[in-house]
Inverse folding.
């Protein structure tokens, strides 16, 4: 149970285990104190050895933890974690080689065989020694994860239950209507995939329900079926190292219901994994389907400062608002004395998202500026990239080939790698007030390091401290090296203002400018 000690350090650990029987035993928080009957008890000890020097992924860096800051931290390294996430298909686990998996109804996906994913182009990305099950099953889904990891992606967004939802092809039960009987064979296969994700260092954004089906369990209340669902997820998968529990995609639930979900999960999760929720889209100046004008505000304001909630999972319709919205929730949460880790997890109209490399309306330049760098320069802890609903055959419901966005993965990874390689980003915050151009962004640790994102064709003045600084330029689209303006740096004197413009007169592209104390 949460609050109890779990073995997170080397040494000899003692344990007590028991089996109990009684009514509703599966959802009891502490069966023995609730006077249930113990039919078996055992005690013993085990040893936690030093970390394996050959370990990879989260087995090397450690469990992702919320530590009261704006970034999650890796348990072993203590380093801040910056998410670089894949946000589609939400039906990633609707895989044809999982037992008991089929499409019931849901959205029309003519490019999928019987409405299930096969990921055929990724079968060759499976490597000798990687996990399989049955008679060599699972190679394609494991290969897909291998490919994404090779491109620098370190997070995956997926649903564990979409019965009666858009996909209607993912559930943990023996059948979609049997919502208290769990398919142990299917879940054992899911476990193999989760373990491989841990080895890759790929975080698991576990979306427990979606907007279309969030009243399936107990009509949205925290009843027996819902408690059992959370209990099974935590008991079977809570030991994994990169988990974020998400209470629901485009949630319709009240703040009191969301708080009840979060607190129950926290009470049964000994590992205290971070808890998130995803909002409905906000369309500027419009009302949709009777929803409030600002569902972002309605979803997150009541959760500010709540003890069992850490991550707003933002969906933004207007990408030009991303930068301001991220900064807003960082600032509000800090004022409530529980700083949030803000994720940007879906962008744009439902049918667009991030296009494919070859799409006629390829939107990479705009998404890079407004959403990728716009969020990171506000202080977000990372992004997940949604594929859109219409760019068939690799859209949000039917995506089979992740190479369809190969160029985008490089652009997204360039941004994360820049932050990791060149910045103490966990010590920095947004300082747009230091610029005189509202189209540019500034992220800084004042008087130490300043980063300015300058859109193409723009220039700006930057207010800066006294002393000697160096300046370098970075191409966010191409990635790679920093270009030095002057190898010897330059002297800043009062009025402590420097004008910034495109590197070497190349005004036809965006630039990232780094000014650091010499």
């Amino acid at each position: 149970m949460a609050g109890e000690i779990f073995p997170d350090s080397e040494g000899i650990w003692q344990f007590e285990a028991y089996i109990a029987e009684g009514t509703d035993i599966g959802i009891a928080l502490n069966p023995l104190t609730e006077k249930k009957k113990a039919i078996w008890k055992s005690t013993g000890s085990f040893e936690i050895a030093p970390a394996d020097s050959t370990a990879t992924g989260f087995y090397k860096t450690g469990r992702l933890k919320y530590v009261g800051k704006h970034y999650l931290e890796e348990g072993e390294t203590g380093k801040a974690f910056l998410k670089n996430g894949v946000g589609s298909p939400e039906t990633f686990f609707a895989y044809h080689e999982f037992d008991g998996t089929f499409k019931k109804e849901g959205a029309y996906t003519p490019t999928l065989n019987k409405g299930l994913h096969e990921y055929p182009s990724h079968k060759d990305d499976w490597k000798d020694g990687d996990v399989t099950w049955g008679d060599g099953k699972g190679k394609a889904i494991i290969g897909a994860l291998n490919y994404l990891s090779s491109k620098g992606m370190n997070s995956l967004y997926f649903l564990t239950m979409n019965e009666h939802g858009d996909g209607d092809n993912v559930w943990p039960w023996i059948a979609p209507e049997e919502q208290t009987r769990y398919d142990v064979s299917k879940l054992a296969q899911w476990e193999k995939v989760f373990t491989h994700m841990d080895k890759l260092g790929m975080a698991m954004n576990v979306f427990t329900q979606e907007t279309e089906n969030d009243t399936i369990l107990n009509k949205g209340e925290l009843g027996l079926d819902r408690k059992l669902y959370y209990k099974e997820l935590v008991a079977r998968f809570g030991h994994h190292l990169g988990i974020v529990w998400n209470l629901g995609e485009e949630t319709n639930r009240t703040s009191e219901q969301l708080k009840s979900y979060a607190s129950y999960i926290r009470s049964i999760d000994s590992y205290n994994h971070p808890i998130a929720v995803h909002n409905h889209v906000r369309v500027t100046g419009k009302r949709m389907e009777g929803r409030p004008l600002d569902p972002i505000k309605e979803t997150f304001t009541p959760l500010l400062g709540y003890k069992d909630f850490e991550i707003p999972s933002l969906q933004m319709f207007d990408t030009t608002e991303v930068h301001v919205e991220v900064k807003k929730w960082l600032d509000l949460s800090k004022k409530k004395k529980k700083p949030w880790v803000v994720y940007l997890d879906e962008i744009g109209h439902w049918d667009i998202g991030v296009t494919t490399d070859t799409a006629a309306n390829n939107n990479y330049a705009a998404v890079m500026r407004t959403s990728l760098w716009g969020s990171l320069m506000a202080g977000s802890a990372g992004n997940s990239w949604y594929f859109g609903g219409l760019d068939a055959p690799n859209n949000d419901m039917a995506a089979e080939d992740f190479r369809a966005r190969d160029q985008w993965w490089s652009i997204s990874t360039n941004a994360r790698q820049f932050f990791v390689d060149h910045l103490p980003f966990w010590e920095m915050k947004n300082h747009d007030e230091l610029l005189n151009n509202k189209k540019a962004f500034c992220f800084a640790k004042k008087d130490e390091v300043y980063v300015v994102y300058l859109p193409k064709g723009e220039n700006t003045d930057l207010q800066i401290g006294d002393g000697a600084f160096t300046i370098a330029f970075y191409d966010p689209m191409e990635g790679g090296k920093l270009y030095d303006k002057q190898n010897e740096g330059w002297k800043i004197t009062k009025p402590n203002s420097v004008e910034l413009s495109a590197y070497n007169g190349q005004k036809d592209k965006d630039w990232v400018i780094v000014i650091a104390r010499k």
